[in-house]
Amino acid sequence: MPKRRTVQFKAWNARPLIDILSSRHWHFPVRRNSTAIAKFHNMGIGHFGHNAFIHELIRGSLSKTMNKKTYLEILSSQIRPSCRIAILLSLLVCASALFAQSPPNTWEVMKYSGLFEAVVERDPIALKQHITTAKKIDERDDHGRTALHVATYTTNYEAMRLLVEAGADPNALEYERYDIVTIAAVANDIEGLRLTLKLGASPGNTTSLFDGTALIAAAHLGHVEVVQTLIRAGAPLDHVNNLNWTALIESIVLGDGGQRHIATLRALVDAGANVNLGDGYGRTPLSLARQSGYTDMIAILTAAGAK
């Protein structure tokens, strides 16, 4: 039996599923004493905006089998809220993963050896030894992660430096097509993000199953300082993912209209993001903000010449 290891991950802010099911977006009363809902309440999920739980659920295993038209219809159609709840719960039963990004789980960590073991054990001496004897510095674990991906997930900055100095590819993608920039961006790990950029990782890599970028992921989550850091690093402002959404649009449709997402949108607008670039249905950022009643976002976009 492999020995037990405890690894600290920098995780997304948790938000219970019941809060999303009870949100104003769904306009659907949820009985808080329901046994079924109580089970969902105990499942922590990422801190997403109104439509975003379905978005993220599809980003998991279902995204490998569902085509673009299917999940666009789920995200953007006029299906009655009560029907969307049924769809959501059905997807939840079928899905094998709730998150787009997958840090090493406990069992994977327990099986690690060589470079990977040295990284999770935070043992720089052992890591240097394994670097000198490793056949491939970018060898992969069962999930397609390199030791550099694992070092980024575990915020092991010293290991990140040592691996890149030894030739590890800072732009490598793991199985779900995430690079170290996007991993750090999603985790809101500012120090790690700055280090990834210093080590030569590109802020413009196309990542994830949705052909997005680190900037789009950060805008979605309202990670303001991450967004500002990526903008300064030259991240593409108007990259369109395969949902036909830009970072600006994601800050609206996947945000909550609160201060973090308002500041995110303002940073993107101030940097020169195209305020009139619409989604796949021709809806502009301004129309989407109006649809959600986000008055502060409406004011920012209007002042920037949005139509």
Could you characterize what this model shows?
- This protein is an all-alpha fold and 307 residues long.
- It has a domain at 14-94.
- It is built from 18 helices and two strands.
- It has helices spanning 17-21, 35-41, 52-59, 68-76, 81-94, 106-111, 114-120, 124-133, 147-153, 157-165, 180-186, 190-198, 214-221, 224-232, 247-253, 259-271, 285-292, 295-303; strands at 14-16, 44-46.
- Strands 1-2 form a two-stranded antiparallel ribbon.
- Helix 11 runs antiparallel to helix 12 (190-198) and helix 17 runs antiparallel to helix 18 (295-303).
- 41% of the residues are buried.
What structural class do the secondary elements suggest? mainly alpha
Computed Rg: 20 Å
* Helix residue percentage: 40-55%
The N- to C-terminal Cα distance equals: 62 Å
Q: Which spans have pLDDT < 50 for at least 5 consecutive residues? A: 8-72, 74-79, 91-99
Query: Strands across the major sheet, in which order?
Result: 1-2
What is the N-to-C order of secondary-structure elements (H for helix, E for strand)?
EHHEHHHHHHHHHHHHHHHH
Mean of residue pLDDT values: 78
The coarse silhouette is elongated
- Total number of β-strand segments? 2
Largest beta sheet, briefly? 2 strands, antiparallel
Enumerate how many helices there are, as a single number: 18
How would you name the oligomeric state of the polypeptide chains in this document? Answer: single chain
Q: What share of the residues does DSSP label as strand, in percent?
A: under 5%
